């Protein structure tokens, strides 16, 4: 118990949003066009590849959950150090080139000023706006970290987490139950490979072949998308049927037993989280307001030391 409390305090001290010194006008004098340049780059990329917005939002989450939002997810492996992006469950991470493109443009405009962690935080916001989500002002001034370890991706919440595991993972980062329910709404975007939900479809446990919290028709359709034999290489399912639109469908589906991951469906396991799911399912407005508030909180977990010149390598 003492150890748990000590670890919790350490994580609060090192990751607390309160210790950050971010500000809205951070680049006002040093790089006033930073946000315009990043938004243009994201828009251009999203126009060519429709999975870019989901990828940027997910990349930002992964970044903030490991070592704070310090661009550690952007670093390449080097020598015998395997970086976060090369950890085995990395299929969901892509579109790193968008951050590289923005950085390149910014280095021409105002060299050495805008951190990669800030670029990613802004790009995630721009991505959400492009697919119909809310906008918000991003506090800036994050520094980039110098460490990225594949082994630390084990600290990310997984699709099989139950509610107590989710709550613990979020509270270790200073994020509340309200933040948890709002931020999981990011699952309104994107695609998942079968491996993330397959445990629910067959041999679930000794009494149930299929996870009983799953709607039977939904389970049947996922089984046909993820056949045991002759499975296509990239088989999987969209996170929700409107997976390129930022909407509140995610919460409506959970109420129907059509949440894709155990961790999505787990939000019904407690009256408080269930109440929030119900609220967000019935009000798009309530969802997007809560999402914007919570993502600002998450993206204010800082951790870095420098402004990288190249987002893939430390200075
Ligand atoms: C995932 O990691 C493997 C090495 O473990 C690497 O070869 C591959 O390029 C990575 N994939 C992505 C999308 O980064
Ligand atoms: C959640 O999962 C953990 C780890 O598997 C387990 O110890 C715990 O009992 C589970 N909690 C609930 C409420 O099912
Ligand atoms: C299988 O899972 C269901 C739903 O979570 C649960 O009610 C049941 O007790 C589980 N069976 C076993 C043997 O663990």
Question: Can you walk through the features of this model?
Answer:
The chain is an all-alpha fold and 315 residues long. The protein folds into two domains: 20-155, Peroxidase, domain 1, CATH 1.10.520.10; 163-296, Peroxidase, domain 2 (Orthogonal Bundle), CATH 1.10.420. Helices cover 43% and strands 2% of the residues. Helix 3 (52-65) packs across helix 5. The N and C termini lie far apart (40 Å). One 2-acetamido-2-deoxy-beta-D-glucopyranose binds next to helix 6. It comes from Punica granatum (Pomegranate).
- Would you state the CATH class of the largest domain? Mainly Alpha
Hetero groups: 2-acetamido-2-deoxy-beta-D-glucopyranose
Q: Tell me, what's the shape?
A: globular
> How many structural units, i.e. domains?
2
Low-confidence stretches: 1-19
Q: How much beta, percentage-wise?
A: under 5%
What separation lies between the terminal Cα atoms? 40 Å
Mean pLDDT: 93
Number of helices: 12
Tell me about the biggest sheet? 2 strands, antiparallel
Helix amount, in percent? Answer: 40-55%
Task: Return the CATH topology of the largest domain.
Answer: Peroxidase, domain 1
Gyration radius, in Å: 19 Å
Pfam family, one: peroxidase
Catalytic activity: 2 a phenolic donor + H2O2 = 2 a phenolic radical donor + 2 H2O
Active site: 62 (proton acceptor)
Protein name: Peroxidase
